[in-house]
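Supplementary Methods S3. Input chains for the assembly prediction are listed below.
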Amino acid sequence: MNLFIQVIITGILMGGIYALVALGWTLIYKCSGVLNLAMGELTLIGAYVCLTFYMWGFPFLLALLCTVIIGFILGLITERIFLDKLIGEPVLTVIMVTVGLSFFFRGIVEFLFGTDTVIFSPPVFPMKPIDIGGIIIGQVYLWSFFAAIALLLIFVAFFQFTRWGLAMQATADDEMAALSLGVSARFVYATAWGIAFIAAGVGGALLGNINGLNISVGYLGLLVLPAVVLGGLNSIPGAIVGGIIIGVLQNLSGAYLDRFTPGGVKEIAPFIFMVIILLYKPYGLWGWERIERV
Amino acid sequence: MQYLPCGIYHEYYQQDHAWWQTRFVIGKMILLGIFIFYILPFWGGLYWVGVATLTIYTIMGALGVQLLIGYCGQVTLGHAAFIAVGAYTATLLTLQLHLPYLLSMFIGGLVAGLWSVLFGLPSAKVKGFYLIMTSLAAQFVTVDFILTQYVSQIGGRGQAFSLPPGSITIGPLVLDSDLKVYFLGAVLTILLTMGLANLLRSKVGRAWIAIRDNDIAAETMGINIITYKLMAFFVAGFIGGIAGAFWVSTLAALSPEHFQWFWSLWLVGVILIGGVGSIYGTIFGSLFMVLIMEGLKFIIIPLTPVYPALTMKFLFLKEATFGLAICLFLIYEPNGLAYRWWQIKNYFNLWPFSY
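Predicted structure tokens for the full assembly:
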């Protein structure tokens, strides 16, 4: 029983980070309708930028802040150079541009930073695990979770209470109406990409703290896809809940199913869940069902 | 749609349906045949034969992707999984059961087709982005789990199936040189391309195109879209399986490394650059991608004395170039190379009265 609770809690803590990255994904989809497959590479970029600043001797929080700023600028540039020209193009075109971007980013990251695993040294979070009534939690997980939740709350506040956030909500809801009310759609698209870069970058920096940083962190970023499919593509609460559920399911299958197979279940379990979800509930938990007419 | 030169009139339906409608085209095809089967292999040297073999493999792999994306509208990002299934089936049959290579290649194609149908089943219910997600799952489940963890254990050969020289034979002929592999590949590619092109002109092909253009409208016209979609998945998987089984003959050892997600995306990139919905597009895209990567090598090699780390990091540069090429093509040339080719050809066909 202890193992079960332990696994669930670790899953929730991991899921918080997935939720953060999934939020960035959903935001892009809601605001501009772009299905972004480059999310994993965005986490990679954020992680490496943060690591570089940390290695230069910045305190971790300052490094994270620099990551946020650089991520935002990179997001704006990416949107302006690549995605801006694709408004109104077919879905496949846009998806493949994001795939192309993912190769481009990964190639650049590998070129600049190499493929060896690097760790944050000295470790950012204390190594000693916390013991709560027999359940042992690594401090890295705990602090990462808190950081992710804090950032999620900041984002939610941003959407609810600031002028820019409201403009983004309006565009996501009805682009035509927003345009006629004087909201600049191009500004909203660019901001959405900037925020997605921030979310992914911070998520990547936190993930890099847990197991060290190499190219496979980009693969973890790919796990947002099952999360958003589960939550429904255009639902922000769905992304958060989906991220946490995927984290839990992944850890559960790692703990309980791994002994029946030669290994590797943990990596592919989210994708199997995703197929099952797609077969029974293709629009996820809270996604909009689309009715199609000829 | 292609325009005929001025002054060509058809009197019979056979003429209208013919593959090659004018003497000029027949002449071009004969020249192409001479080039493929004589000039390139015997005068070109081993380096170019190697490049051509890689191109041929890319064409065969991309044909299935072209069928699914370009003709049936079912976007797949996991085609390498089916290529891998074909390759593994053929290898296992050859190594374990000592079946003839061509037979095991055929069976490999069939198994890959059925595997593809299995992962095509969700297409009955979902489409668009959700279908992309299922194909993604197909990739990870097949290659990273089933092949890596289970299939690689068969026969106790370790992670990679090593293929001792001389293990791949067609009758008395041992496929041991690059040249023989090239000839096998060229014949297979021509057969598959002709077969697919013919299939696309038949009732089945037209049903696929109708589904691509609008699946609900196609259903109202009486096309059973589930059957036809699954048929498309089967044919695409079959072609992929044959491609995989062919690629085995060039390898010294088979491992899941050859069929990573990168390769699936590469194939989709190939057809996007070549042109979606065009057999020419597949071929042009493959040629372009393979040649541009070889060209990149020629640019990098003179730079290595100045900056030695480049040789180590060539792979990463290749990835970045590939990504950038896809982005730029989609933004600035969304119809692909095939459209450019069509324009050039029609310009000459209609010359001097091009309006």
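Chain A has twelve helices and two strands. Residues 14-222 of chain A form one domain.
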